[in-house]
Write a structure and sequence with these properties.
The protein is mostly helical. It has 8 helices and 2 strands, in the order ββαααααααα. A two-stranded antiparallel sheet has the order 1-2. α1 runs antiparallel to α2, α2 packs across α3 and α6 packs across α8. The longest helix is centred in the first third of the chain and has 22 residues. The radius of gyration is 16 Å and the shape is globular. The two termini are 25 Å apart.
């Protein structure tokens, strides 16, 4: 079953994947707020990776993470994931964050361009200091999404 959402077709797996990804980011945020609680961080990591897999599919997820030029980002992301599970939450999250930026950094300009179209978020992004930072990130984007 597919449903049209503002010009996009989303399957049930993609809807569940979007929820799991947001759920994972929320639990990661809770893990940081509660002084790097490894339980919250571990749940956040599992939900985030499960969500990404459901959104773009298993094969595309595998191809994305194991591209030759993204090897160091994948290694850091999965290494940080492992360190969080071993109980070294702060170090694991730092390594994982570095890997996340290396893997998903090319998506930030497109995400910010999308967020600029959302009514209330647009107003926040237009504050003078934030606008300068957002403009510098968006100015560095290429013409097509980095998929």
């Amino acid at each position: 079953y597919q449903r049209r959402v503002r010009g996009m077709m989303l399957s049930d797996n993609q809807k569940i994947g979007t929820f799991l990804t947001l759920f994972g980011l929320f639990f990661t945020f809770l893990g940081v707020i509660f002084f790097f609680d490894r339980g919250f961080l571990a749940i956040g990591n599992i939900a985030f990776l499960s969500g990404i897999t459901l959104i773009i599919g298993f094969k595309n997820t595998f191809n994305f993470f194991f591209k030759k030029k993204k090897f160091m980002g994948t290694l850091c992301f999965l290494g940080g994931f492992f360190l969080v599970f071993c109980g070294w939450a702060f170090i694991g999250l730092a390594v994982e964050g570095f890997g996340f930026i290396n893997l998903f950094g090319n998506f930030f300009p497109f995400a910010l361009s999308f967020l600029r179209k959302i009514p209330y978020v647009k107003q926040v992004l237009n504050f003078p200091v934030i606008k300068q930072m957002v403009d510098s990130v968006v100015a560095g984007k290429s013409s097509s999404p980095p998929v």
